[in-house]
TrEMBL record:
GO terms for cellular component: cytoplasm. It comes from the Eukaryota. This is F-box domain-containing protein. SMART domains: LRR_CC. PANTHER family: F-BOX PROTEIN YLR352W, PARTNER OF PAIRED, ISOFORM B-RELATED. It comes from Daphnia pulex.
Amino acid sequence: MPSVNSVSSLLQLSVAHIVTRIENFDTPANSTANISVMGELGNIFHQLPSSLLEQVIIAYAANGIDRPEAFVLEYLISKHLRFARFHVYSEGYLTVFPRFEHLISLILRFSEAGNNCLRELGIHCKNLRILDVYRCRSITDRGVQLLCSNFLKPNALCNTLQHLIMFSTSVTKRGARFAIDNLTALKNLYHENTFEVVVEIVQTSRSLMQDSFSYVHFLLHDFTYLQGSLGQVVQLIPSLTCVAICVTNGLTDTELLSLLSLKNLRTFRLVPNSEVEEQNKEFEITFKGGVVPLLRKFGHFLESLDISFFTVIDIWTVFKCCPNLIRFWFKSHCDSVTVLPESEIALYRNNEEKRLILKNLDGLFCGYNTSPEILHFLLSFPALKEIHINSCDALTDEFLQSAISCHKFKNIKNFNLSFCNYVTKRGIDALMTYHNCVEEIRIQSCDNLTHENVYEWHLQAKKENWKFNILYKDSEFDKYYCSNKKDYCLKYV
């Protein structure tokens, strides 16, 4: 069964107590004046260890408050703060930015942060290494310019910022180019146009030395691919350790093989483009010709592999080439696409004791037409902590009960089901009964699992004081429950 809620740690109790006191504090009529007086007497919050203060700020900003008061944050935030995360944002927070001089990491994703925010960060955050503004729609090219320079003078963070996440903002290719040109320490620019910009740089500035770039991650998103451009980028940046490709027209096996020039590939993702996929277009990329050669060279060092672009792959080839995988995404297995000898495939197919087991795999994402036998085998991997099964007819109540009975799921923390229409309440009840460590179950669009079932599990978890979260979603609304809360929540989308 899910584990019983343990006694909160001293850190957790301290954070919860401080946040509760802050929330119950009556806002003074002249908050700014009061803060000034308090500052003169000595700010007791700034006497707390930085690690505790960071947790207090995160908890206060995320504890169901629509918009935390700027004056409270101004009083909480210390110049020694190194890590900060704000779930919401207002321009009033700009008053605290001068205290961010030692900040290393700032997360503002999904917030209303805009160009003024980036301007202040550029001025005051001289040691910033990580900035996450994912889906901050108000940020434009102008914001990137203000982040990098002030009155034509480069800001100090140009020499420190290593990871800039600004996917799904209003920043265009021009802004991405400005970031690449000015942030000299950049290792990862997570933006839709990063690859296109680097291709342009390669084609127009061939005199650039290879050490002019230090990217460790590349996302090839929706774009018009030019033949040979992937190889040009790899020659310029052989230090790439992570390559994620959203397959588009023009990519071929030959293009993928240019990745063989990389020095140390650790993460490889080849995923479908949903828009192109709906048009039923055929691509010139194959598992045998484009991916297997990469697995043979880098497989021993690969930690994360997503080849969900392909309808079918051969898991035996993957397991033999990539024994140290930690996370693995695929759709379905089929022996017909293997590159291994038939005798070896027959051995794996017929002799369970001879099958290759990924001992380090802790995240598995699969489903579709995967057979019950193969799925049962995959669920036996000893280090699994997170399982995602999608559109899988093999997953039935009987199968789930058998798998749990055989493998016990001693390490599995997260169990996720999507579009699995042959599982009913009886199958999930097995997760709530056997001695496993499941802490979270996510259910999306499974026809035979209802929000009434979820509510029963909520009551069960509450009664047993389990450390257990459950999220349910169908086509009409989300229902989700966190067992550490009192209420069963309903959220319409």
